[in-house]
Each structure stands twice: as C-alpha cells, then as structure tokens.
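Title: Request for sanity check on Domain of unknown function at the cortex 1 domain-containing protein prediction

Description:
We are preparing a figure and want to confirm that the structure record we downloaded matches what your pipeline produces today. Could someone re-run it with the sequence below and paste the raw structure tokens into this thread? We only need the token string, no images.
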Amino acid sequence: MSPAAANAGAETVAAVSIPNHYAGIYPKEHIERAEHVEGFFELGPREVHPFHKPAMPSQEQLQNSLNSPVIVTPNPMVKQQEVNGRTDPTFELPINSGPMTINTSMFEGTLEVHLKGLPTSQKRVFEGKKRFFQIMCQGRFKRAVDADGLCMGQEFVKAGNVPPWVGEMVLTAAAKVFSSSTQVDIYAKLPYFMNPVLAACQMVNVALPGSEPSLTEATEDMRLFAPELADKTGGPLSPEKRRKWCDVPKHLAGKQFSTEHVYTFHIWQHLIDFSTYKLSVGGFVNLDLTHALNCQPLQLTCKDTHADEYMFSMLVWHERLLYADDTSAAAALAERLSRWGAGFRSLMTGGSSSSSSAGKK
C-alpha cells in the first residue's frame, strides 16, 4: 500500500474543474488524474481543506496564543487520537512546556514537542544547536508494527503554488537529509514525502517495561531490537551507525516493533523554521512556505505506512499561512516557478514536456 493511501473517509474525484490559479503550474497529465482526494485542485488558494478545517484556529486565537504566531493542534484526519485525554481537534497542544499523553489506535505513551523561535521556546533545548524543532516520544505499541513501515514526514491534501517537479525536487532534497531510503511521490492520492523512522531519527532506545529511561535523558540503545545493533564490545551502536544500518531496506525487512518493549524516540531537524514558516535546504533552496502551501498546515506526523494508520499526527498552523493580508506574493511565486520550471524542463528534455514521478516505493 502506498505510504500516502487515502484516509478511510476520503473520496476520489471522478472529474475535476481546474481554477485558473493552477494553469501553467501543474501539467495537463497531472490535473487529469482522478486519484487525488476531493478538493485537491478545486479549492481556492485561501481555502483550508475539509480534512484540516475542523482544527483551523481563528486569527484571534493565533494572535492571543502563548506561542503566537503559531498554534499546534491534533490532525483531524486521525480518527482515534487522544492528546492529554482530549479528542477535540481545536485543542491547542501545550508545546514547549513538557510532556503530554498520546493515545492512538496503535500507540500509547507520552510526547513532548519543542519549536524554536516562539515566545515559549526553551533556551536549553536549542542553545548551541542548529535544530528548529525537537520531538521526544516514549511508549508502547498496541500491536506489532513493521519496522520498515513506520515513517515520519508530510502528506499534502491540496495542490501547492509550485510545479510538481519543483515540489518533488525540493521534497526529495529535504528528505535525503534524513535518509537515503526516503519515499517521495507528489503524484499520489495524498502526495507525500516519508522517511523510515529508524533510518532518520536521531535517537532510539528500546527497553523492557520498568527499565526504560526518562523521556528527556534517554540514550541510544537498540540491542533489544536486533543483535546487529550492538558494537564489538556488546554495547549499543552509535546513532549514526544505527541510522546507516537501518537505511538499508533489507536490514529492516521482516523486523517489527513489538508490544513487549518501551520505545523512546528523539527526532529533530534544521530545515523548517516553524516560527517563520520558511524552508532552507543546504543554502540552495529558500522558500516561504506560507506562499507555497496554499493554506495547508505543515505536519508533525509519524505513521505506519503499511497499515495506513497514524502513531501520531499534529498540524502546525501559522498566522501568515491563513490570514496573510497580501496574496500577490503567492501568485508571484507560482508564476515565477512556473516560468522557471517550464524553461528548465525544456532545457533538460530537449523541448519535451513530458514529466514523471520519482522516488516511488
């Protein structure tokens, strides 16, 4: 099953009417595909998709939040997700303040989220470090989960303000920072980029119940997961060597996260600054995501892509994403990237306009 297989309640589109906004951005063969979820092309640039709208904060809420101009909410696409015992999709999650409980259909434990650059950001978490966010998660799986199916990343419910090939290039470049086994498909029903957790996250600890470390002080140790993840002295491999080993698909094939252990994950990245909603990849790509994403929020998502089931998923909203006074910047971005994309594609293909997706798994 595709990592971005549609949510159970999603419907496909038999025929689509494409607004002028997307003319020249998406190739004809992409627009005519009926696999995308309903609303992918039909919604206007300033409309939030119905999948996300139940969680959409008002401008007043964003301005009055302790984390202004950002609010993090549960993702309404996850049908069974309780955070601190609440299922309300409008619940503003307590980021930068300590652990919260998380309970989904496949996982139960605690989760702590830190974002840099906000009024509540904790200096100790980010001082001297490049990272823009950090997630710490600890708990137990409710069923066995394929190790190569547990991924973190983004799913997209709306067409963006960039040509598909540009989006594919940017997402692939960003994802490769985490692992070489990245999965990217911007032509899928829910376009996505996903990275296997074990090949991407910075720290994983596996322990027996009762002997697990504290959430914040956990250190790398995956010896209970696989004997290959012990070094020559019997100690745990370093995170770098574990990521390299887990980035080889055949090493994870057939292995599972069990219900008998307590797992602790630490995840961080330095590509997206959520306080400004800007993406930077290697100094070569700098993109204002409020213009590119068309009112769809970024996610903090971990998902069993084999079962199409979420371990957890949060939406990160920004005031400029929803309530920008000037939409001309988004239109200018779309036009600029469209012209650039058409010229570059013509140069690379000798005039051919054909395009294809890459990175499918």
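Thanks, this matches our download. The first helix runs from residue 28 to 31.
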